[in-house]
Each structure stands twice: as structure tokens, then as C-alpha cells.
Amino acid sequence: MALLYSGGADSSLAACALAKTFKTVHLNTFTRLGFVAPDFSSVHFNRMRERFPDAEFLHRFISAGRFYRALESHRFYSLARRHGWLVLNSCGHCKTALHWRNLVFCLQNGVRFAADGAVVNAEEFAEQNPRILMPELERLYAGFGITLLHPVYQEGLDTEARLFELGISPKERIKMTAHDMQVVCTQQILFAMMMRIILSRHTFTEYEEMARAYLREKLAFIKRLTEDFVAHPGEATAVARML
Fold it and tell me: Which CATH number among 3.40.50.720, 3.40.50.300, 3.40.50.620, 1.10.1240.10 corresponds to the domain 2-242?
């Protein structure tokens, strides 16, 4: 099992849930320019190892910068003409790129299950919205024989309180506090600006439709390059050069 692991409440609780089913859980913390304090993710990791001694948590830092840059820059100007402000969707680009890098990790290491920390009530983020990217990402992984899971995606689940009950976090409320031990992204302000502009002109439903159409083109790019990587092992494919 390979989990996108930021170290925050959502991904940490996802890791705890996975530890009950999978003997080995790869906690993949991705790094790139714009991310700050990746070492924060080690705090909950150490506590989870104590709480779940029968599970093997393997924590690693993986650079995803080249994947992010390739995805964000792909057909930037032509897509800007058709999709407008959505080309500034830094969070959409980022999480899609991290899933791409996680997919490649799975392919390289023979891992057949992947997961993220998606939760309800975060639907502005494409990868946590069932009407934008969640089913598309599941299909992307499935196309390469990998099952993508969302272990803490359920109605009304309070990840912070549950993590506290498990003895992983020291406080019942940690998000947006000094106890929020997850990787910090400095580009969220760009995403917030994009959302403010789009929602001043469109409904949220329209935003979902627009974002789905835009990010599908990015996923098609990912699928094409990853298929080439799988079909030509050992060769200098685009994905191989990014590793």
C-alpha cells in the first residue's frame, strides 16, 4: 500500500486505517519547490509506529518537482485560451502530480494498492471532489492495475478527534495550529486567488464542470507518458528522465 502522506490529520488517520488491513504501508511524503517543513510529517509517523506495532510503516521523502513542473507547463498557453483562470489551479496541478509520482512509485515497486487522505467538505480541492477528480484518479490507477482507496472519506468523520482518540495527536483540534504537523505549501494563496475570481463569475457547480474538463486533459497527458514508461522499461522516456 502506497499512501500520499503529508503528515496532517487526514493522511495520518488514513495511515492508521490502512494499518488494520495492510501489513506494509508506504508513507510517501513528496517534496518540491514551494513546500516548506517536510520534516513535520515525521512527528505522527513515529507515534503511529508505537500505536500499531504489528504494521510496518515505511516513511520516505520523494521528490516530485519535475512531475509538477511537467504537468503544470503542459500546453499552458493553449489551455489558457480555452480554460482561462483554471491554468492557475496550483492545488489541482500539485495533487494530480503527486498522484502521478505515487503511481510511478507503485509501478516501480510492484505495489497494487494506493491511497490518499481525501475527506468530505473539502470539495474545492479537485482530488477530494467526487464530481471532479476522485473517479478520474481511480480510473487512472486502475488502468495500470492499481486500486486507489480513500480510507477516511466518509460523511461526518472528524479526523482530528479520531486521531486524538487513537493517541496519535496531542490535541483534539490541531488543524491550523502549531500542532498541525503536515507539509506546508506556500502556493495555496494562488489557488485561493483563482477560486475567488472563478466563483465571482460562476456557480460552484459550474466550477466543478470546468475543473473536470480542464484536469481531464492533464490526466490524458499523464496516462500517455506513463504508458510509454511502462512499455519501454530502461529507456530514456519522459517519465524516466523525471525520476
Answer: 3.40.50.620
